[in-house]
Design goal:
The protein has 3 helices and 9 strands; from the N terminus they run αβββααββββββ. It is mainly beta and 135 residues long. It has one domain: Jelly Rolls (Sandwich), CATH 2.60.120.10. A 6-stranded antiparallel beta sheet has the order 1-2-3-9-4-7, with no helix packed on it. The protein is elongated, with a radius of gyration of 19 Å.
Length: 135
């Protein structure tokens, strides 16, 4: 679905267009899917931005399911995400703990462990580090 201006690389006024065309992406057709113990992430990319939909299954705990592969007790990646469903708890190296549920925007600083609370999967839209989760 392109018009003549798009095909010619011009804005229609005869001048080259400096604006990239818009993109619409959907998690039904992700660019990448990564699985890990008790979880998965679906990644979509658009215009140099990356968004991940992470599903953590009941029983997921970062230190056991991901950190154990490298022998690390704490995750040192910063995360920013929006919890769509479920409940996620976090413990930090300094002893601070936080529990957050659906509808919550979270910024998770480095030096944390996290796990799913209850019997419902926790689904989070990850906006800051989707390229790193599950690798």
């Amino acid at each position: 679905m392109t018009n003549e201006a798009e095909r010619s690389g011009s804005s229609g006024s005869g001048q080259p267009s400096l604006v990239e065309p818009p993109e619409a992406r959907n998690f039904d057709e992700p660019d990448e899917v990564r699985t890990f113990a008790r979880g998965r992430i679906e990644v979509v990319r658009a215009g140099g931005h990356t968004l991940g939909r992470v599903t953590y299954e009941p029983g997921f705990r970062w230190s056991e399911c991901i950190g154990s592969r490298s022998g690390s007790r704490w995750c040192y990646v910063e995360h920013v995400g929006f919890i769509l469903s479920g409940t996620f708890s976090l413990e930090f190296e300094d002893g601070t703990s936080v529990t957050a549920g659906a509808g919550t925007l979270v910024r998770i600083t480095p030096g944390h462990d996290g796990w799913v609370e209850g019997d419902e999967p926790c689904v989070i839209l990850e906006v800051a580090s989707a390229d790193l989760i599950g690798k």
